[in-house]
Amino acid sequence: MTHAILVYHRIVEGAAERFHDVTVTAFEQHLDRLLALGARRETPYGPLRLGDGRGLFISFDDATDDHALAGRLLERRGLTGLFLVPAGRLGEPGRLTPAQVSGLAAAGHVIGAHGLSHERFDRMAPTDLDRELSQPRAILSGLTGREIDWLAPPGGLCPPGLADRVAAHGYRFVRTMRWGLAGADLSGLLPALPVTSRTTPDGFSRLLAGKGMIRLARAKDMVKSVMGETLWDALRERWRR
Ligand SMILES: [Zn+2]
Predict the structure, then answer these.
(1) What CA–CA distance (Å, rounded) separates 37 from 149?
(2) How far is ligand 1, taken at its centre, from the CA of residue 52, in Å?
(3) For residues 100 and 47, is the Cβ–Cβ distance under 8 A?
(4) 202-230, pLDDT tens digit by residue?
(5) Cα gap 14→25, rounded to integer Å
(6) How many angstroms does the Cα of residue 140 sit away from the middle of ligand 1?
(7) Which CATH class is domain 3-211?
(8) For residue 48, which of 56, 62, 142, 192 is within the disulfide window of CB 3.0 to 4.6 Å?
(9) Residue 200 Cα, ligand 1 centroid: separation in angstroms?
(10) Which tens digit of pLDDT belongs to each residue from 95-106?
């Protein structure tokens, strides 16, 4: 059975300001839709399970401070999230504090790494990249009392050979921003399903079903080819602040 790995960024009160913002109202609708599809906890720290047997992860990038509320909204429904945290940026204005990350872990959520500095991995010297991989595991296992199995490269940017390097550091799962459903064994660089300010309730259901993805991916490629790789990169940098 495949796995659907949803990707959220900020969960905002009021209106969405950035492309990746999802409002609290929309987020709660998504969670209730997931419950209607039979989403439930199965094993601690493992994937949630949908009624059709597929695995499900609800992931959050960047450790913005609104993720404390996201955690509570999940807990209220008996669900858990996968919080991917730039470990060197905790406690900055607008980000979760180390204590909040410990709290999320204690409530049963899974904590993973989203780099140390949140700098992109694909333009980094190998020694810097090793630090970006090793330090988050040390910091986050200190905060959670658990091994850190998950990594999401900032911006989803994966330099060649990343999978092997990451495995050597002890990570087991690597979530990217490539659109798609992940395989049964969760090996390799895992595709995901990004949820954005543009995701309508219908769009959310389609996304989850793996439909509409090809269309979205095509649209993305088209925008990329029209505006050019450099501008696309700059835009992406802004989205992922
Ligand atoms: Zn990020």
Answers:
(1) 27
(2) 30
(3) no
(4) 999 988 887 756 566 666 666 666 666 56
(5) 9
(6) 16
(7) alpha beta
(8) 56
(9) 22
(10) 999 999 999 999
